[in-house]
Design the sequence.
């Protein structure tokens, strides 16, 4: 049934209208706005690359970039191995594996706002906060958690890992069912132990999916917003100010009117960086992922 | 699962026969289960417990079980005095509208691109896939401006639910998975229907849609969950507190009421997603990548 007639257009109408108005047009509009000075009151004026220059010279810009990179790095160190280890262990569960995966996935269905605000309660810095109480049982703390410049960011990463690990576990569990079990048998015959089997058979067969989850996690953490916004509003002393929070502050943080030029310029810089990073990542890992 | 499955995985049959291996694996799995219960379920159980604990007990002794009895009044107070009931209803209405828009766009678009497949379908496909590579943050500011000052229509959509419902439909992921499902439907049936005189509308409504219940179900679950979780966009476009969903209200509720009532409000906000997850567990886990893992 190939056709280009009016009926086809009628069926395409919702898609074309919704994507045109709320996806394609705003993408083009971002590029235009980044080159303009707009405040919604006076007519927009073209300013060339001034917005980009102003963002580049904003003293908060390097802080936000550094914090976002720190968040992404910490999330990679803590959040990347945990789902993998959990999934490999879970894949060997024979009975009632459903319970394991349901428990692992449960935090993912909790609304993120609830997750953050609940953890904010846990992070209460007084000695009767939930976490400080538990650590007090083993005579540790009390720790200041979100109130300390040093520990605020790791606290954010801890909550974020808790909230997101379950989704990755499920992806790995699916990938693990595709691992060729004949190789395990052959390795056992050759006398390989458990760890060697995981290292030499399981992980190499998962490398495709491992590379994908890593880049997806980096793209996701580069856009972290909710945690710094709700936990700390970027504080203490800008210790958790991320790039997305800076974009938000440019556009919506000032009650006198948003600096939409700066906001769109910074969001384009982030998108451009992520695109370049992805290309570089794909090129760098190409030989490894298809070998 | 039967006994043959033992030894088909990481641990071989001969290894499995050794008591030390059995014991070690059993212990590891028991520890894993304990860890999953503590970390996965623990915080939610704590929230459930604290939502019916007097505020003073939660503050002074967060890890104890009801030292001075339960306070069911927290839940009642949250629902009525703090207006969680109204915000809950707002969340339901927002989720329902976003779901409707997403289903209409994904099914009609998927049908046109997959079954009717006009010559220009390639171009639209490329444009759709392209949006998957654009970080959502790029859209934030221009979308907001578009809602405040829409082109052509000189009427702000701030505080209108359409400002949340319509942009929710622009999910390329939905269209792509629905289209891919339609691609795999047997073409012979469409041909037979056409010979019997069914036009495109009949084909869509009476044949393709009824055959697509599984994929429509998966898209529906994720549409409702995503809407329930949404925070930043409704925060920006719904400025009237009486219209805001629960997730947007929760940070303000925190400063307006006691800790016990606030935690009760948060617990209420979790109920629908958790209940939905328990009922549609298989769809959730399959939709998140389990596909094909539940063999036999």
Sequence:
């Amino acid at each position: 049934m190939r056709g280009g007639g009016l009926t086809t257009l009628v069926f395409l109408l919702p898609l074309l209208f919704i994507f045109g108005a709320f996806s394609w047009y705003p993408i083009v509009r971002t590029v235009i706005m980044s080159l303009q000075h707009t405040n919604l009151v006076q007519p927009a004026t073209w300013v060339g690359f001034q917005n980009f220059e102003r963002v580049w010279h904003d003293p908060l810009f390097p802080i936000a970039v550094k914090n976002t990179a720190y968040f992404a790095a910490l999330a990679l160190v803590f959040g990347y191995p945990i789902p993998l280890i959990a999934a490999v262990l879970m894949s060997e569960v024979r009975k009632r594996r459903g319970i394991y995966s349901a428990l692992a996935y449960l935090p993912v269905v909790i609304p993120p706002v609830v997750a953050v605000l609940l953890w904010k309660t846990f992070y209460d810095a007084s000695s009767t906060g939930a976490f400080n109480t538990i650590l007090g049982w083993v005579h540790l703390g009390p720790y200041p958690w979100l109130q300390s410049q040093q520990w605020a960011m790791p606290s954010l990463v801890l909550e974020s890992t808790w909230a997101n690990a379950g989704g990755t576990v499920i992806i790995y569990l699916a990938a693990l069912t595709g691992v060729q079990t004949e190789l395990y048998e052959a390795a056992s015959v050759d006398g390989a132990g458990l760890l060697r089997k995981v290292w030499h058979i399981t992980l190499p067969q998962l490398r495709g999916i491992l590379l994908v989850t890593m880049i997806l996690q980096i793209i996701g953490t580069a856009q972290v917003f909710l945690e710094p916004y709700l936990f700390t509003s970027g504080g203490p002393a800008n210790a958790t100010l991320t790039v997305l929070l800076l974009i938000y502050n440019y556009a919506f943080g000032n009650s006198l009117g948003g600096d939409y030029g700066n906001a769109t310029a910074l969001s384009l810089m982030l998108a451009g960086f992520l695109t370049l990073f992805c290309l570089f990542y794909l090129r760098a890992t190409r030989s490894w992922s298809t070998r | 699962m039967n006994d043959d499955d033992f030894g088909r995985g990481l641990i071989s049959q001969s290894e499995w026969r050794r008591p030390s291996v059995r014991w070690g694996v059993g212990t590891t799995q028991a520890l894993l289960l304990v860890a999953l219960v503590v970390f996965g379920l623990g915080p939610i159980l704590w929230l459930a417990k604290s939502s019916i604990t007097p505020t003073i007990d939660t503050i002074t002794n967060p890890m104890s079980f009801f030292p001075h009895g339960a306070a069911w009044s927290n839940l009642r107070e949250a629902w009525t005095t703090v207006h969680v009931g109204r915000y809950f209803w707002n969340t339901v209405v927002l989720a329902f509208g976003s779901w409707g828009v997403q289903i209409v766009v994904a099914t009609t678009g998927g049908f046109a691109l997959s079954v009717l497949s006009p010559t220009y379908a390639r171009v639209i496909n490329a444009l759709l896939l392209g949006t998957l590579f654009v970080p959502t943050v790029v859209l934030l500011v221009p979308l907001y401006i578009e809602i405040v000052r829409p082109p052509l229509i000189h009427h702000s959509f701030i505080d209108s639910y359409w400002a949340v419902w319509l942009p929710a439909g622009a999910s390329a992921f939905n269209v792509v998975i629905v289209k891919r499902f339609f691609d795999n439907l047997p073409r012979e049936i469409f041909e037979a229907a056409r010979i019997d005189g069914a036009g495109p509308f009949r084909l869509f409504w009476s044949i393709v849609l009824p055959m697509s219940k599984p994929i429509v179900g998966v898209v529906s679950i994720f549409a409702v969950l995503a809407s329930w979780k949404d925070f930043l966009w409704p925060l920006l476009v719904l400025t009237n507190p009486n219209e805001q969903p629960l997730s947007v209200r929760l940070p303000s509720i925190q400063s307006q009421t006691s800790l016990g009532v606030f935690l009760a409000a948060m617990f209420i906000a979790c109920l629908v997603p958790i209940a939905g997850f328990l009922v549609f567990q298989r769809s959730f886990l399959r939709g998140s990548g389990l596909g094909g893992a539940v063999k036999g």
